[in-house]
Amino acid sequence: MAPTPTTTAPTYTSIPIPTGDVISRSIHNLTSAISRHRPWSELVFPGAFRFPERLSSLPLRSRTNFRYFSVNYSLLIATSAALALVAASPVALVVVGTVIALWLLLHFFREDPLLLWGFQVGDRTVVCFLVLASVWAVWFTSSAVSLAVGVGVGLLLCTVHSLIRNSDGVFLEEDDAITGGLIGSNGRR
Asked: Which of helix, strand or coil describes residue 119?
């Protein structure tokens, strides 16, 4: 038998970036994402609310609106949760808000590896820390019910809005429409 050639896959390493730069880039990514929200006047334009003529058009309308107003809906849910936490306890808002900010900066909007005291921190370690911090924050502030109610009210408002807002005048970018499953892609660009 002839020996089989072995190939090794190239390994890629990332260049460690100081923690301050990672955080500042995460903040930049977060503010960039928030800046993509649609104008609030467009969200609540009185002439845009109309019940659909056919119930079968509700899923498409809802998907289109959720895709188009996704940042606005996220901000609305966050505001609803914040109001519920303030009603429970202002300390709960500060503690839970800090943990949510950590999630946003260290997990969702971080592009570069995290470097602490000269050591690169792995993604699993960051997620484990954030999960433990989240559990501690909710337990410490006894805010699980308030947080669930706030998020639930925000989701309900967004769902009702997505169903009754007419999506005929909403125009998505082509890539957003394809990834949302609203139009098909034939594989050509």
From this structure: strand
Burial (CB count within 10 angstroms: exposed 0-12, middle 13-18, buried 19+), residue 154: buried
Q: Say whether both 136 and 155 belong to one domain.
A: no
Q: Name the stretches of the chain with pLDDT < 70.
A: 1-23, 35, 46-49, 111-112, 167-189
pLDDT for 12 equals 47
What span, in angstroms and rounded, lies between the C-alpha atoms of 148 and 154? 10
Q: What domain range is 167 assigned to?
A: 67-89+143-182
Residue 39 lies in a domain: no
Non-local CB neighbours of 186 within 8 Å, separated by 6+ positions? none
pLDDT at 154: 92
Q: Does the predicted TM-score (pTM) go above 0.85?
A: no
69 sits in which H/E element = none
